[in-house]
Amino acid sequence: MHPVSWSEHVSAALLGTARKPVPALPESRGHPEAPGQGDDPAGRLLDQAAVLTVRRRAGMRPVAAGEPIAPAPQEHAAPAPPAAARRLARILEGERIRVLPEWLDAAADHGYRVPSRMLPDVLEKGRGNRDLRPSIARAAGRRGVWLALQNTDWAYLVGSGDDPGGDTEEVWETGTRPQRVAYLVRLRGTDPAAAREALAATWSREAAPDRAAYLATFEHGLSPGDEDFLEHALEDRGKDVRQLASDLLARLPGSAYGRRMAARALRCVRPEIRSAPPGGRAETWITVEPPDSYDDELARDGVPFHPSGSFAPSTPGGQPVGARSAWLREILARTPLSTWTELFEAEPAAVVTLRAATSGGPDARAARDLHTGWARAAVRQHETEWARALLRSGVLADEPDDLAGLLGVLPDEERGVAAADLIRWGESGPDVLRVLRRVPGPWAGPLADAVIATIGAAHERATDLHGRAVIQLCELAEQRLTPDAAPRLVRLTTREGGDAASPALARLIDSLSFRHDMLKELAQ
To answer: Which residues, including other chains, have CB under 8 Å from residue 179's CB and lie 6 or more apart?
Structure first.
């Protein structure tokens, strides 16, 4: 065996550059140091880089080993069946990737977990997709959390998954932020007072981002016992901490915060009896006067000076929401809804249909401010009766985001019916799509009927099925519509004299078939 020449090494390094042919390199134990000479600048660069790399590596000292990594914990759930695992591999490779959350949730519902060899790919998907993380937490198992503890890129899973251990006070004293959040979440579930006391003991030493992360755990087991701590947090130097504290206090029944907001709201909103024409009945109206100014107390209680949406086109016709209206909406959103049933001595369904006015007379914007504020309060306080009343009255027909929030407050058995009504009202326009994106699947019953009817009507009109709104509805239905709906959609394309399926409809039918097989595999 002759030594390999330096030119042969350079030729091998330049493989794929179309500069040199591939040489046959014999086995060699080494080569002389590169001379760094020659007419080829690229070759000299590679020569010098190779020598520097060898020198650097030769001069490195071995790194001392750290503490040994604890073995992965024993799993509680069985891995997914082989057929389901093979389908998961296809999904992770990009085939119907949007059904991944459904696969994960269905696996967890049937008592399965992600096979260990696929955990890195699944955890990596959650790294860039926050919406996917709750589903990953359900199906990753104990080994998934164990892996997340070894890789900071996957730390999002710590505290939300099946955490192997970490229930000791030592974790709170020495753990990372995700580990400490997980500890507080678990403790808030069993002993909220103990969790609050643990945080109070270290509060002054925590960084602002950490204080916000730890305070967010108070949504678990929130109770009147947390009020004093949250009131103190309203004075915090961290903006996110103050905002979290005000949001939590607004959800706390009977709090001093709620009474302060109610006092502000009652200065802006009051009942007024208006006389009727001869022979008619007097009516109760709502007189609305937004606040004139913004003060330090309003700022302390979490109402921003420029609330989200102020001075931005957010109403039909692009009319902006001014500062005063935005402040009023924020105040109403933080006021206990019982304030209004007591003031008007009526149920929510009657209150939301009262006509609104300002000092100058009937005012559509005043009504919009009222209804928007009440809708946000219903979502924050999870008031089902108010959500139901606002949806049925139709007073928020032009506010898709608020409508979507209200749907989330309804019981599961009512949500589909209410969403189906919205489809019929809105004729599947872009605003209805914004609502439907917030309605989780599977869409069945009346909601499935309304979606299929909308797609069917568009199919009969032929060209409308290629419209952007219907295409987007088909794409959303690929993930949400119950797979049992596939035969009904197939019949749309096989009617006598019917047109061939559009690409969007064909993809929808294929996706439903894929999901049908996927769920069948996981049900074994």
So the answer is: 149, 158, 159, 166, 171
